[in-house]
Amino acid sequence: MSGTVPPYAAARADYGGSHTTGNPGGAVVTSVRVDSPAWDAGIEAGMVVTSVDGVALTDMIEWLWHADGDSVALEVFDPADATTSACELERFPGEDWGLEFAGAVFDGMRTCVNACSFCFMAMLPPHMRGTLYIRDDDYRLSFLQGNFVTLTNMSEADVANVIEKQLSPMNVSVHAVSPEVRRRLMGKNAQRGMDVLEQLLAAGIEVHAQIVLCPGINDGEELTRTLRYFEEHPLITSVGIVPLGYTRFQKRFSSSYSDDPAAARRVIDQVAPFQMRARTRTGRSIFQLSDEFYLDAQLTVPPAGEYDGYPQFYDGIGMIRSFLDETDALLATDAARLRCIRDELAERGRHLLVVSGCAARETVARLVAHPALGGEVIAIENRYFGGNVDVTGLICGCDLLEQLPAALDDVMLFLPDIIFNADACTLDGYHRDDIERELGARGAHVVVCPTTPYSLVERIEDGLHAFDLPHESL
Prior knowledge:
Elements: E1 13-21, E2 27-32, H1 37-40, E3 48-52, E4 55-56, H2 60-66, E5 71-78, E6 83-90, E7 99-101, H3 139-145, H4 156-165, E8 170-173, H5 179-186, H6 190-202, E9 207-213, H7 220-231, E10 236-243, H8 261-282, E11 287-289, H9 291-297, H10 319-333, H11 335-347, E12 351-357, H12 361-368, E13 376-380, H13 397-403, E14 411-416, H14 432-441, E15 445-449, H15 453-464
Parallel strand pairs: 8-9, 9-10, 10-11, 12-13, 12-14, 14-15
Antiparallel strand pairs: 1-6, 2-3, 2-7, 3-4, 3-5, 5-6
C-alpha cells in the first residue's frame, strides 16, 4: 500500500449487517484522515474496529494482512451507543484507508514465561511505574517493532501464523544452545524456544539473533557452540552479542565485562574468527559485539563497514561508530560552522554543557569538547540503578538533578531526549517539565534534543537564536 494519494481520490462505503451491543474488543481508532475511505464511511476516533474480513482484529499484522486489497469488510463498534455495525470500504490504487490505531497489538501483550537469571526487569527497584515491570515477549512485536523475543511462549497456532504470513525477519533472544545451559539461564521453558526457532528457520524465516553474555554461564565453550550453531544456519543473518547488565537491586551478580577489560578482550578475540569466516563467505560480518565490549576492553570500535548496515543498531551495536563517523564528517566539512557557534556562545557569555551517560562521555566529547566547538560534557553516574548501569538512555531524573551544578547561570544545557518516554517522564518518574523548571531556576537554558551530532549542532543554533528570552526552556 504505497504511493501518493491522488487529490481526486474518494471512497465508497456501504453499511449493512447486524447490530450488537456491548464492547467486543478490537482496535481503538485514534485518528481518521479527512476525506479518506474511513472518513467517508463515518468512522470516527474512539470507535473500535472489531473485525476485518470476518477475522477478529487482534493486532496490526491481521490488519495489514487482510486490508491489503482494494476493498475491506469491517465491523465497527461505536461506544457512543454501544452498537456494532458492518461496513465495507473501497479505495483507489495507492490510497490508504485513513485509519490509525492505538498500539500495535489489540488483544493484550504476550508476556514472558521465563525465569531468566539476567532479566533486567527482575533487577528493577521497587515502587516504579507499574508498566516498567511488564515483561513483554510477544512475537508480533518482534516482527512489527523489532523487539527481541525468546519464542518460549508460542503455541503451534502462533508458529503456523508466522509461517503462513512469512513474518520475517524475527528478532530472537537465543543466549545459548546447550539444553542445560539454556535451562540454567532461562528456566524450564527454555527448550520450547529452540524447538520453535528450528521450525521457523526450516520454513524460511530470517532471524536476527541476540546473546546476552553472562560470565561463567554462557561464555567460553558454550559461546563457541552457540556461534557455530548460528554459523550453520544461513537464515540467521545477524548476531548481536551484548554483555550482562545488572543493578544493585539483585544478589546474583556483582561483576561483568565492565569490571574486567581482559575478559572483554577475550570475547572480542573469540568472536573474531567467526566474523572473518562470515565476511569471506557472505561479505558481511554477521557476528557483532555491542559497543560496551569495546569500551570495556579499552579498544577502538570497528569501522562502519563491519556493521553490515547496522541491523542491530538499537541493541547498542554500532551507535558509537555512527556517532564518531558523523562527528568526523562534521569536523571535516563544517568546522567553520562550529567555530561560528563557539564564537557566538562566547559573545553572549554562554557556556555549552551536554549531558551523557558515563559510557558515552568520551564519544560525545569528541564533538562537544573539540576546540572548534569548545563545550563540555558532563557524565551522569547512575546511582539510582547502581550496578554497572552507565548508558545514557537509563539516566534518571534524581541523578540528573543531584549531579548537575547548583549554579547554572549562563549555561546552555542539552539533555538527551532518550531519557524521556512518550509521556515525557524519566524512568524514576520525573516529568520533563519539572526537570526543565528546576534547571531553569538554577539559571540554565535547557534544550532537549536527539543525541546525534548533526541534531545537536542544529539545536544549538536554534537555541542561540532564542536567547533573548532569558531562563526559558527552548
